[in-house]
Amino acid sequence: MSPLFGTDVVLFSPMQGKLTYKGQPAANAKIVRHLVWKDDKGEKETFYTNSNGEFNLPIRREKVKIPALGEFVITQELVVFYEDQQFEIWGISKYDIEEYGELGGKLENFRCELTDE
Question: What's the whole-model pTM score?
Fold first, then answer.
């Protein structure tokens, strides 16, 4: 950690998996990743599932200056747009700056049925 140059922070760990809708692959579903850490607006990135409903969200890193007595918090949200509907599938606050810190380890075989609550 360098107070002068900043700390390499993992804002969002890599995540891959499969989305389904009523048991069928959610092909070409739009996934919006919204990360808030440096201001109230945050940053949004858009990704899409393939024809099998599979997605691969890359790691998102940033150099951040963290005050010695400060706490770093990242708000993460994933929203899926499919069949003219909106589904929030992920929403947490991340306090850990390491890779997979918000997941408790690397996710394996992640699946999400959009119609499940």
Answer: 0.89
Burial 27-60 (b: 16+ CB within 10 A, else e): bebebebbbbbeeeebeeeebebeeebebebeeb
Task: Pull the structure tokens for residue 79.
Answer: 């929203």
Residue 112 near residue 20, CB atoms below 8 Å? yes
C-alpha span between 92 and 78 (Å, rounded): 10
* Cα 12 from chain centroid (whole Å): 5
State the Cα–Cα distance between residues 79 and 32, nearest whole angstrom. 5
What digits encode the pLDDT tens for the residues 6-28?
789 999 999 999 999 999 999 99
Using an 8 Å Cβ cutoff, are 45 and 83 in contact? Answer: no
